[in-house]
Amino acid sequence: MPIAIGDTLSETGDLSAEEFGAYILLLMRLWESGALPQEDARLSRIARLSTERWQEIQPSMCKLFEDGWRHPRLEQERVRSEELYRLRSEAGKKGALVKAKNKSQGNAQHEQRHQRGQQPRQDPGFQPDTKPSPQPGTKPSHQQNHAEGHKPGMRQGEGPRKKPGTSNYSHPDSTTQEETLFSRSGTRDEARAQNAYAKSKGV
């Protein structure tokens, strides 16, 4: 309960200590319950006085309250305090929701980082071999040999066989062995014919 010290002292300057104590007790009860009872017996118990003594100081108390034992300044402070309490309660609830949401997001991000840390790293240039490897003890099928360029009778991993005495490299403009032998034999025959003709002429 807030107490306006200046106003309270100015209002209670002519009260005795007993009367001032009764006044503060009445204000505290009004703050807690929002209203004071109208019966003298109950008011005397709140002020912690006997009924006879309450009736003696009642005129001094009535000057400090309005009709019905109302206190406008204290009631205004009470309404203001209730509104402030409501605003603080709403702000606290919003803050709790934001805190819970941030905590949930933080846990989710931590779990994602933990999962990414457990995944094996892969080289960007790595390309997995999708070609099926042959099982141990099995021979490649005819379709696999044909697709890989193998001929019947050719060993695994062996290229096309070449004829004995031939070279792997052949120039497109080079002559074959038969053409070379023919050209050489033709040259010898022409030379023999020219020699025979020269002898017949006596050259």
What does this structure look like?
The protein has helices at residues 5-11, 17-33, 40-46, 51-62, 72-118, 142-147, 177-200. By secondary structure, the chain is an all-alpha fold. The chain has a domain at 5-70. α3 packs across α4. The protein starts with a helix and ends with a helix. The model is unreliable at 169-175 (pLDDT under 50).
The class by helix and strand makeup works out as: mainly alpha
Largest sheet: none
Helicity range: 55-70%
Distance between the termini: 158 Å
The tally of beta strands, per DSSP, is 0
Give the overall average pLDDT: 75
Oligomer: single chain
- The tally of helices reads 7
Whole-number radius of gyration?
61 Å
Global shape: rod-shaped
Question: Low-confidence spans: pLDDT under 50, at least 5 residues?
Answer: 169-175
| Strand fraction | under 5%
* Helix-strand topology string: HHHHHHH
Task: Please give a quick description of this structure.
Helices cover 59% and strands 0% of the residues. The protein is mainly α.
Keywords:
single chain, mainly alpha, 7 helices, 59% helix, rod-shaped, 203 residues
Please outline the helices and strands:
Blueprint: H1 5-11, H2 17-33, H3 40-46, H4 51-62, H5 72-118, H6 142-147, H7 177-200
Helix pairs in contact: 3-4
